[in-house]
Write a structure and sequence with these properties.
Layout lengths: L7 H16 L3 H7 L4 E10 L5 E12 L5 E2 L2 E4 L4 H17 L5 E8 L7 H15 L8 E2 L8 H15 L23 H17 L7 E5 L3 H14 L3 E7 L2 E4 L6 H11 L9 E3 L1 H5 L5 E4 L18 E3 L8 H10 L2 E3 L1 H4 L1 H16 L5 H26 L3 H20 L3
Parallel strand pairs: 3-5, 3-6, 4-5, 7-8, 7-11, 11-12, 12-13
Antiparallel strand pairs: 1-2, 2-5, 8-9, 9-10
Helix pairs in contact: 1-3, 1-14, 3-14, 4-5, 6-7, 6-12, 6-13, 12-13, 13-14
The structure holds nicotinamide-adenine-dinucleotide.
Length: about 425
């Protein structure tokens, strides 16, 4: 995930540098924001089903907690690297800031291949991670959540392990939990829902009629699947023309039934072979002539090499870090409206924050209230960023950085850190 050419942490630093320059940040504040405040590296011995002990490597990076306790997901991935985790932790810092929730940013990861592990092995690995990292977690310190290849079940095991360490239920130490264990209503689809609220606002901003629009989705996991169905639920129309996952993609210019392809993916584990569609590669999907493109897989899929061929008018980044800085400039010059990752996918952390709030007062909200509050947060964040974009005449990611970095820098100054 973190090749030398596209090291995500270098990209995150480059993006910050540009914002710091435009904001006129003093050198000390800028330097403090370029590095994580704390990180923990752990080795995790786990008894595998064959009786042997295997040692996994794990990380937790707490990037910045000036605005409140840190918050960020945990990834299980064979190509996980510390620089990927650092970049994601930095992006979490800007994300909580841009949606203006009182939290900082963090991220965790374990180098492992969950597709090759049994449920028992995954449970033992998840518990071992908390045995090691639990000492720096908690509602008031740092609160993890699901990310790539981690699930509500994994969150439940982690919460339970924390319970055995502490001796009491601290449901708010982790979010994305199953509903019976203090999860929030509306968390499952929150990332995609927040992204679709942003697409609704961006469509208004550029005068695109969502009813006449077509859309394609790269990556068909949690975020991608919900985006497919919510486009219709929230915008009332729109035509899904292509989807893909790690095995490959499918397309039908006449339209793909979103509910049916989600069901097919859940039943078969793939999108390939969905009736009425033709195969398409992940690369070709990005270059389709669609109105809206949702990258919803992994990092740096839109680079200087292919940005010139990306035709979508709105690029709604549900995944983290799909577009490189060079690609951002190419897309902006061409007039594309990129809704940057840390704004577009902030619905997940926003409902995670609602989950922490509900856990803290042990009283739970009905679904319409979650949706209403999420819509308010996402819409006002989108509008703040759009206003900055228009005022400063910069691409949307830089506008979002200007809004977010300014708030974190102000908190650091007020606390006397810089
Ligand atoms: P997920 O594990 O549920 O799904 C990931 C999907 O991407 C899978 O369908 C997988 O097959 C596909 N994929 C993997 N490699 C691919 C490749 N090379 N080309 C095409 N598809 C590929 O993960 P998710 O939760 O949907 O997260 C997706 C992205 O959204 C990640 O970048 C994640 O950090 C980001 N995100 C997720 C959430 C959330 O709440 N789920 C919140 C914020 C950001």
């Amino acid at each position: 995930m973190a090749s030398q050419a596209h090291n995500p942490f270098k990209i995150a630093q480059q993006q910050l540098d540009e914002a710091a320059k435009m904001l006129g940040l003093d050198a000390g504040t800028h330097a403090a924001l370029r590095e994580p405040m704390r990180e923990m590296h752990v080795s995790l011995p786990v008894r595998m089903d064959n009786g042997a002990v295997r040692v996994f490597k794990g990380f937790r990076v707490q990037y910045n907690d000036a605005r409140g306790p840190t918050k960020g997901g945990i990834r299980f991935h064979p190509d996980e690297t510390i620089d990927t985790v650092r970049a994601l932790a930095a992006w979490m810092t800007w994300k909580t800031s841009v949606v203006d929730i009182p939290l900082g940013g963090s991220k965790g990861g374990i180098i492992c291949n969950p597709k090759e592990m049994s449920p028992g092995e995954l449970e033992r690995l998840s518990r071992q991670y908390i045995r090691q990292v639990g000492r720096i977690l908690g509602l008031e310190k740092d609160c993890p959540a699901p990310d790539v290849y981690t699930t509500p079940q994994i969150m439940a095991w982690m919460m339970d392990e924390f319970y055995w360490q502490k001796g009491y239920n601290d449901f708010g130490m982790i979010t994305g939990k199953p509903l019976p264990l203090g999860g929030s209503r509306g968390r499952n689809d929150a990332t995609a829902r927040g992204g679709v609220y942003c697409v609704r606002e961006a469509s208004k901003a550029i005068g695109l009629d969502p009813c006449k629009s077509s859309y394609a989705i790269q990556g068909f996991g949690n975020a991608g699947q919900y985006a497919a169905t919510l486009m219709k639920e929230i915008l009332g129309c729109g035509k899904l023309v292509a989807v893909s996952d790690s095995r490959g993609g499918v397309t039908n210019p006449g339209g793909i039934n979103a509910e049916e392809i989600v069901k097919y993916k859940l039943d078969t584990g793939k999108v390939e072979g969905f009736p009425g569609t033709k195969p398409i590669t992940n690369e070709a999907l990005l270059e389709l002539d669609v109105d809206i493109l949702f990258p919803a897989a992994l990092e740096h899929c839109i680079t200087a090499a292919n940005a010139g061929n990306v035709k979508a008018r709105i690029i709604a980044e549900l995944s983290n870090g799909p577009t490189t800085p060079e690609a951002d400039v190419i897309l902006y010059k061409r007039g594309a409206y990129v809704i940057p990752d840390f704004l577009c996918n902030a619905g997940g952390v926003t409902v995670s924050y609602f989950e922490m709030v509900q856990n803290a007062y042990n009283y739970y909200w009905e679904l319409p209230l979650v949706h209403k509050r999420l819509d308010e947060k996402m819409t006002s964040a989108f509008q703040a960023v759009h206003k900055m974009r228009e005022q400063q005449k910069v691409h949307t990611r830089l506008a979002a950085y200007l809004v977010a970095v300014q708030r974190v820098a102000e908190a650091m100054k007020l606390r006397g850190w810089v």
